[in-house]
Task: structure prediction
Amino acid sequence: METVSVLPELTIEPTEIKLMSGSEALMRSLVAEKVDTIFGYPGGAIMPVYDALYDFQDQINHILVRHEQGAGHAAQGYARMQGRAGVCLVTSGPGATNLVTAIADALIDSTPLVCIVGQVGKKLLGTDAFQEADVMGVTMPITKWNYQITSADEVPEIMAKAFYIAQSGRPGPVLIDMTKSAQLELMTQPFVYERCQTIISYRPRLTPKQDQVEAAAKLINEAKRPYIFAGHGVQLAKAEEELLAFAEKTGIPVATTLLGQSTIPTNHPNYVGWLGMHGNYGPNVLTDQADVIIAIGMRFDDRVTGDASKYIRQAKVIHVEIDPAEIDKIIKAHAPIVGDAREVLKALLPLVKENDHTVWRNEFRKYDVIENENITAPELSGDTEKIKMAEVIDLLSRKTNGNAVLVTDVGQHQMMASRYYQFRQKNSLVTSGGMGTMGFALPAAFGAQVAAPDRQVVAIIGDGCFQMTLQELGTIVQNEQPVKAIILNNNFLGMVRQWQQLFHSRRYSFVELQNPDFVTIAKGFGMAGHTCNERETLSDSLDQMLAFDGPYLLEVIVEKEENVFPMVPAGASVSQIRLK
Amino acid sequence: MTTYTICIFTGNTIGLLNRITIIFTRRRINIESLTVSETERKGVSRFTIVIRHESRDEVEKIVRQIRKIVEVLAVFGYLNDEIVFNEIALFKISTPLGSKPLDVETINKLHKAWVVYWGLDYVVIEKTGNETEIFAFFEYLRQYEILEFVRSGRVAVGKTEKGLVEYLPEAEWAYYL
Ligand SMILES: Cc1ncc(C[n+]2csc(CCOP(=O)(O)OP(=O)(O)O)c2C)c(N)n1
Result:
């Protein structure tokens, strides 16, 4: 029987009255932010979100990792390559606490993350419910912002804020703790998503003040031995071209920080090397001879300054920073410029005079010769019984023409990778700088590869580091990402061993590892690989790895007790850098 | 050691107190007193935090770290002579039968304090003033039996519009209410 209704309310479109759950609102918010990839791991308190995700698989690629720390580092690798927030989705309690290391790493290395974490239902908060942890409390000191969503209606506005805060100004991790009740309940109003553009209490300055720019330009134009330090901020601001234009016009030598590497090609005539504890000789020593330092998007980390009280006391410092709290924090700035590195360099360019500073730049070359004679040439000479880390990186650099994305872990191999890889392209080094998180590289390389499918991603990993996150081999294989992983196996926690050798009279306290067979482990995960133990087969081994269609693990057995030099001993001044 | 009064204007969100205090605890700075109240603007809270520190530079750095908190609207650091400030103290004094009678006149006229509650064998006296005045009054009251003594945190208003913020390279990122 057919009945025709005359009641007006039945003419309302069903979509107009459909109210959305908090979980679905979350999915729609991610779509509105153009998020197409998230890294996650499910569990009880985030199940409603995973249920909503089931219907969004065509729009959002969820990658199931093997450990939440892996999700965090993968999202970091992704964010660093894409220049926008990486997104993680994990459950409450242990899921959230497993993410903590990556969040802390992202904060100190200014990496944008949006971490969505399940939480017990609102009524259970504070009752020590199953898998309840005070994640807001735990993450407060290590997030740029965190917020607990307890009602579905909050979702669109809070997610918009989360992405805005994570990605704007000095980027950083944001954590959203979402109660299960908020995931389940229905919104009481229609879902409307407006991207956040501004927050009254948070207004990062992008455009610098003209008087600050002018004061800096004056110092630069009068300088006899000016010197640029390019930090991670250059990459975050996508200011690589502006940096080059500025350096080329003024002729000023450019050194980078660890994270600033690859912002300028290593064969560029203005590039002089990188700074810091294991950085290059000349760039460290000549820090004490510059008369004007132009520090761009860097924060004078103690691994760069050595003893900060003895650091660049002779020079005037121009400090270009988006985060005003960094100015004068470690080193007093004579001419601070608050602003985005790109905007600042654009504003400076017309005000600085053309110059070449050849004599000054040639100073650096003198030190290059010393460094080469004492360190680089011997390390690459191939006259030792075992392969040296330097040889592997040097060969890799040549075989990839300096065009790979290196994702490095933490330790000697990290420093060697930075010393010997000749970066030709911008955005080519992903490493854990400020936190020095062992286990970072494998998941971060995975995330970087997902973010940059067209680039060759090579992870350089120590045998110690590898064993912190090796389960992510499973993620790499399951997602068919062609990540190449090189384990530089010295059978030691090498960097710690080096310190014990140099500063603790060779008292090797718990630094030797009994390692598993890494290649067998890779095979167990379904990943191809082989071990290279002989110098004669190194070149072929690298070729084989690079040519392989798919993920590959290459283990290289290296010299057990080599040390990374030059080295500024902890607490020494940069000019006390040691060559041996 | 110099006393600094840090006034922080914020939005009103849960957890902000924690976010602010961890900036001090991480640097091992003891908070001498802390008060929070809503300001003349709805939804805007004002934290008044008193610390003692040897280095003005360090205090400026802390001010900037606080300024970084997303919900913080403005931060001002003040020296004592740049603000009008007060605290309130309550004294509970034992007055059983036969004890020394209170000299209410001295309490009122000399110490500008007031008996605000008469119990059966005790009184509660309220004294408003700065730390020195309150301690002077405490000394005076020692002749009686002090059952309880409690002091609030400092509240302060600036004598000028700006404080330490003037010395920051980017004074303008403070948001004036
Ligand atoms: C999570 C974590 N734990 C401990 C350390 C301290 N640490 C720094 S480097 C290092 C040794 C790394 O050993 P390995 O991965 O074998 O690399 P190598 O130095 O030998 O190249 C250690 C233990 C750290 N950085 N991170």
